[in-house]
Amino acid sequence: MSWRLVREVAWREIVTRARTKAFRLITGILVVVSIAVPIITALLPDGGDDLRDVTIGLVDVDQATEEQISAFAAGSLNVTFNDLTGSTVEQVDQALSDGEIDLALEPGPTLVWNRATDFEIANIVYSVLQQQEVLVKGRALGLDQTAIAELLTPAVLQERFADEADESDELVATVASIGLMAAFIIPQVFGQLALLSVVEEKSTRVIEVLLNHIRPRTLLLGKVIGIGVLAVVQLVVVVGGMIAALALTNAIDVPAAIWRFVPIILVSILGGLAIYNTLFALLGSLISRQEDASQVMLPIFIPIMAGLFVGQAAIIGNAETTLMKALTLFPLTAPMLLPVRVARDAIAPWEVGLSLALLVLGVWLLIRIAGRVYEFTLLHTGSPVSWSQLARLSRGAALD
Amino acid sequence: MTDGLRATGLHKSFGDVAALRGIDLEVPRGQLSGFLGPNGAGKTTTMRGILGLVAMDAGKVTWEGHPIGEDDRRHIGYMPQERGLYPRMKVHEHIAYMGRLAGLDRTTASRRASEWAERVGLSDRGDDLIQELSTGNQQRVQLAVALVHEPVLMILDEPFAGLDPIAVATLSEVMAEQVARNVSVVFSSHQLELVQDLAEQVTIVAAGETQATGTVSELRSRSPNRLLEIQWNGTIPDWSPPDSEPREAPAGVSRFVVPAATDAGALVASAAAAGRVSAISFEPPGLDEVFLELVSQ
C-alpha cells in the first residue's frame, strides 16, 4: 500500500468535490443557517411574559377585591377586568357566551362560567375571597392587624421528586439527538458521494488508466479518506460558524457539560464515515451507471434506518435493552447508538471500547473485502453485479 | 534490438464467448507497431490483458524478456479506446495528477504537464475543465496523460478515432518522437492508410487469433494476390485478365486483383494486344487489400 498514492487520491477527491457548485452551495447554506440562528434569536424581542390572558367580568364587586385578584394572579395569569356593574343575569351569560369575558364574579359571591371551570383562576379568586373572609372574621374576633397578617401567612410547601427531571435531562436528550442525527445523516450523504465518485470513474473509463498506476485498494482507501476529510471540513466550518455566532451573541445558553460529549460524537461520525464511505464505494463498483445507484443502495438503508429508530427510542426510553446493546456492538449501527447510550450514561466503559474496536475491525475487514471485490468489479460494465456474484467475489472467487 | 513487449498465446473467454483464441503480438523496443483487426477481433481485450486489466486464461506477456509485472506496467502509457478522463478536473491539473500517480514528484509532474499541454496544442486551455473541451481536444489531453511520465511502452487503442487532420498530424509526430526515444509503441486503428504510413510492423488479428505479423512490405508481398494497374491511352478496351477481380479505378485506368502466380509478362502482352497501354504496374496489393484477405479467411 502506497500512502503517497492514497494521499494523492484523497487530495483529488477533496479538491474536485469541494469545487462543485452543489457542495459549495450546500456548505454555504449550512454555514449561513448555523450563524443566522443564534443571531436571529438574539435580535428577536423577548416575546413578552407569555402569560395566559384571562378576562373577568365583575358584577357589583368592590375595588379592593379587583386589586387583590390582580395581585394574586401576577406572575401566573394576565388578568383584565370588565366592569359589569348593574348587569342582569342574562347580560352576564351573554357576555360569557360571546367570549367577552372568561368568567364573571357576582355578589354572593358566585363565580359564573360559560361551560367549563378554569381551576387556575378559580383558585386565585377563591384565595382572595378566603383572605377577605379571614380578615373580616379576625377583626370580629378582636385580632389586631399583626395577628391577622400572621394568620394569612401562607403555608410553606416543599416538593420532592422520585425521578427528578432537571436541566441535565434536557442536556442528555440534546446530546443524544445531535449525536444520533449527525451519525445518521453525515455518513450517508458523503457515502453517496463516494458511490458516485466510483461510478464516475467507471462510466468515464478513467479507471482503466488509473489502474495502470494504482492498486484498487489504494484507490478505494484514498477515496474513502478524501471524502471523509471533506465531510469533517464541512462539519468544522458549520459548527465553527455556529460556535462563533453563539459566542458573539450570547443568544443561547450552551451548557458547559455538553463539551464532554464532543469526543464520542466526533468518533461516531468518523467511524460512520469510514464504514459507510467504504460500503457505498464498494456498492458503486457493482454498477456502471448512476441510474442503477438506487437499486444497489437499497440494502444499506436497512441498518441505517434500524439505527435511527432504535436510537430515537433509546433517547426517551430504555437505553439498556438487549437489542440496543447488540446494535451498539454492530459496526453499521454503532456510530448512531454510541452517542445516545453515552449521553444517557447507559453504557459501561468496556462496552464503549468493545464497540469502537469492533467498528475499527469492521472498517478494516470491509476495506479488505471491498479491495478484493473492487479489483474484479471496477472494469465490469453493463448490468450490475448480482448479490450472489458479490458474495463469491468477497470469498476471493473470480467472476465468469 | 532488445526484446520489448512480447505477448504469446493469449487466450481469454467471457462465459461461453472466446474473445482471444491465441493472440501473439510483438513490439520490439523503439518500434511503432500497428495492431489491426475488425471490430470484435480481440484488440482491446489483448491490450487490457497486457495492461493487467483483464486476467488472461492462458498465454504470457513479457517485457524485456521477463514476465511483465506491476513495476513494468507503471511505465506504460495507455490511451483507452473510450477516453478515460475526469470531466470535472482542469486540463493541467489532470495531466499533473496522472503524472504524480505514475510516480513523479509534484514539481516535475506540474512542469511536465505544462510541457505536454503545450506540445499537444492545449497550452492556453490549462485551466479549463475537461468537460468544456471538444472530443478532439479531450483526446489531446488523453495523449498528454499517456506521455507525462515518459513511458517506455505506449499502448494506444484507436488513438486517431475522431481526430481532425491537424490532430492526426500532431499525434503522428509525437508517436514518431517516442519511437526515436526508444519507446515501443503499439496502436490499433481502422485507418489503414495511416497505419501503412506510420507502422514499421503490423499485426493483424481476426476472431481472437493472430492472422499475420510482419512489416507492411512483408505482409503485402506475402499476399496470394497482386494488383495490376493499367493506364490506357485512349478508350479502355473490354479486356480483363483471367481469374481476376476488378477494382474501382480513376478515368482511363483499369485495376484488377490477380493471383500472385500469374505470369506478368503474358499479362502485359495480352493487355497490349487489347488496347494502347501507356503505363502498367504489377505489384503486391495495399494494406487494405491484405487486411480484407486475411480477415475474410
What do these coordinates show?
The complex is a heterodimer of chains A (400) and B (297). Chain A is built from 16 helices and four strands. Chain A has 400 residues and is mainly alpha-helical. In chain A, β3 (103-106) and β4 form a beta hairpin. The model of chain A has no long low-confidence stretch (mean pLDDT 85). By secondary structure, chain B is of the alpha/beta class. Chain B has helices at residues 43-51, 70-73, 91-101, 106-119, 135-147, 165-180, 192-198, 216-222, 264-274, 287-295, and strands at residues 5-14, 17-27, 32-36, 58-63, 66-67, 76-79, 153-157, 184-188, 201-206, 209-215, 225-232, 245-247, 253-259, 277-283. In chain B, the strands form three sheets. In chain B, strands 6-7-8-3-9-10 form a six-stranded mixed beta sheet, sandwiched between helices. A four-stranded antiparallel beta sheet of chain B has the order 2-1-4-5, covered by helices on one side. Chain B is elongated, with a radius of gyration of 23 Å. The model of chain B has no long low-confidence stretch (mean pLDDT 90). The chains are: A mainly alpha (400), B alpha/beta (297). Chains A and B meet through α1 and α8 of A and α3 of B.
Write a compact overview of the structure shown.
The complex is a heterodimer of chains A (400) and B (297). Chain A has 400 residues and is mainly alpha-helical.
Q: What labels would you give this structure?
A:
heterodimer, A: 400 residues, mainly alpha, four-stranded mixed beta sheet, 4 strands, 6% strand, elongated, B: 297 residues, alpha/beta, six-stranded mixed beta sheet, four-stranded antiparallel beta sheet, 10 helices, 34% helix
